Amino acid sequence: MAVVPFRVSGAAADQTLEQRLFQIGPHTIFIKQNPKGSGAHHNQARCTSDDLASVELEGRVGAPLGNVGLVVWQSAFVLADYLVARPPYGTWQGVSVIDLGTGTGVVGIGLAMAGARVTLTDLPHIMPLTAQNLALNADKQSLDAQVMPYAWGEDAGRLPQAPDVITGADVVYEQEHFPALISSLRMLAAPHTVIFLSYRLRGRGEEVFEGMLEAKGLFAVHVPNSMLHEEYREEAYKVLRICRL
């Protein structure tokens, strides 16, 4: 299996955190998440990320979603697996990446392990967990990565300018945030920048989002599902490749 969940054990373990192991290409990533802090509730001792996500997004529509970044969503694995195997510039060595809505950091850390220079961004209260995961994996190899708080729609002047790649996993789930997300994409994307967004189809305005992209001068195409990890080709996971018109 690509994803192996397990509980942190021992007297010193933080009982609010669950640690998971991801195998993305040749890279093994250790990720801590905080299901309790996310507000997700599930009866199983071990559950997949989309069990948590479905509780947040389908089972509790209208519930606060400010803490969903504290758990891993499966589309993050889908995107990281796709990108590590298919660098848009032929290699990840030295490629600059900004990861929007990084959450636990799966995508950004995976690309940093592949050699990219990555800036992982999310809301300030998410960043401590992201930083913890980055440090956990940086202990195993030197990573050119940093974490920076950033809210979509804000001035992006503090972030690295003209990145080669922008990524975002499961950032398309609340229509009220679409304008701010697209505003950030427009501010950050240079003519050469390639944007990759992944999400699970939930009927929460995904088509509206794609229409808004085009209206703002961003051209999107769907990556063929045949190019995604074999476990997810028949499921409702999508990856968009976006560039400026």
UniProtKB/TrEMBL annotation:
Organism: Coccomyxa viridis
Pfam (any one): Methyltransf_16
InterPro entries for this protein: Methyltransf_16, SAM-dependent_MTases_sf
Name used for this protein in its record: Uncharacterized protein
Upper taxonomic lineage: Eukaryota, Viridiplantae, Chlorophyta, core chlorophytes, Trebouxiophyceae
